[in-house]
Amino acid sequence: ALGLAGRVHFAGSVPGEVVIDHHTLRSPAPGRYRLLVGMYDPITGQRLPAQDEAGRLLPEQVVPVGEVDIP
User: Fold this and answer.
1) Is 31 left (phi over 0), alpha (psi -120 to 50) or beta?
2) Residue 34 to residues 9, 11, 13: CA-CA distances in angstroms?
3) In this predicted model, what pLDDT tens digit does every residue of 25-65 receive, in sequence order?
4) How confident is the model at residue 19, as a pLDDT?
5) Which of 56, 18, 61 is nearest to 37 (CA)?
6) What's the CA angle centered on 58, arms 28 and 69, to 5 degrees?
7) Chain centroid to CA 59
8) How many Cβ atoms sit within 10 Å of the Cβ of residue 15?
9) Spatial separation of the C-alpha atoms in residues 17 and 34, rounded to whole Å
């Protein structure tokens, strides 16, 4: 998977490494939204597996990162 606008390949990442990748999100309407992060294979477009701290696969291959309220 590529991050930082396609400039970094995560295949060389090590566990615990932090990579900051900024994205602008558009709000469809006021309300509370869950923020989920997933990574994709740049060639196939398929979502890559995501695991929790214990190594268990997460549903839908996404990591929940929080919620945000849009007034």
Assistant:
1) left
2) 26, 27, 26
3) 887 899 999 999 888 887 898 998 999 889 999 989 999 99
4) 73
5) 61
6) 30
7) 13
8) 5
9) 24
